[in-house]
Amino acid sequence: MYIDIGATSAEEVKELGVRPGDPAVPVFPFTISGTGKTYIGKAFDDRVGCGILIDVIKNLARESHPNTVYGVGTVQEEVGLRGARTSSWVVEPDVGLTMEVGVAGDVPDVKKEDAQGKLGKGPAIVIRDGTMIPNLRLRDLFIETAEALRVPYQFDLLDRGGTDSGAIHLHRRGVPNLVIAVPTRHIHSHAGIIHRDDYDRTVELVTAVIKKLDVETVADLTK
Q1: What secondary structure letter does DSSP report for 39?
Q2: Cβ atoms within 10 A of the Cβ of 34, count?
């Protein structure tokens, strides 16, 4: 990528304080679209995930449940799932849930087999990506809980790429894991788009599932 900062010499670049390896961030303010339901902003991957875990923990703090819940905002996912590897050793999880964005395919020129998610159709349960197939009993628990709550949901899969679950599910002897995602248009850009209903329903569903994860239920995931 060619980025013009207006300099005419190496000396001017130095005077501006720019060095090789400095990050560049596009200026794009968070915006609510005219519909009032779709939000536009940069770096939704994975600010959305961080927002979900914060809201889920807020919900759980007001209710009784059988778990100690850790919300981890990891680093360097895109370059080797590094934060997920180190934080797994700190937390030693019995179950791992990865809050993510999914690739929304409801835009022109995107093939259905490349991206299945659609805005406004609920959280996406990821059934496979390039690094992990989820624990099927955990998948079923999400499906059953969503249907009991009448929370709409959709399925998603990625032939390539992966998430922090790719590292978490391999920790020690293995950790039951699943990715739950908010469909997002134009991820990895400064103008991602999400639907607020998808976000709220994801928070509701994750909160409800965690409340069900007692000792017996967790043990059943790996029988």
Answers
A1: E
A2: 7
| Structure letter (DSSP) for residue 77 | G
Element (H, E) at 124: strand 124-128
- List the domain range (segments joined by +) for residue 151: 28-220
Contact 45, 194 (CB under 8 A): no
Write the DSSP symbol of residue 79: G
Is residue 130, in this structure, part of any structural domain at all?
Answer: yes
The pair of three-digit structure tokens given for residue 212, joined into one six-digit string: 């069900």
DSSP string, 149-214: HT---EEEE-SS---THHHHTTSTT---EEEEEEEEBTTTSS-EEEEHHHHHHHHHHHHHHHHH--
19 inside domain: no
Q: Is the preceding peptide bond at 129 cis, omega within 30 degrees of 0?
A: no
The catalytic residues are 77
Task: Band the pLDDT of 2: cuts 50, 70, 90.
Answer: confident
Q: What is the CATH number of the domain that holds 153?
A: 3.40.630.10
CA angle (147 as vertex; 158, 94 as ends), nearest 5: 60
pTM: 0.89
The pair of structure tokens assigned to 66 is 């059988």
**What mean pLDDT comes out for the span 26-40?**
93
- The closest of 152, 141, 129 to 176, measured between CA atoms, is 141
H/E stretch holding 100 reads strand 96-103
Question: pLDDT at position 116, please?
Answer: 87
Residue 5 lies in a domain: no
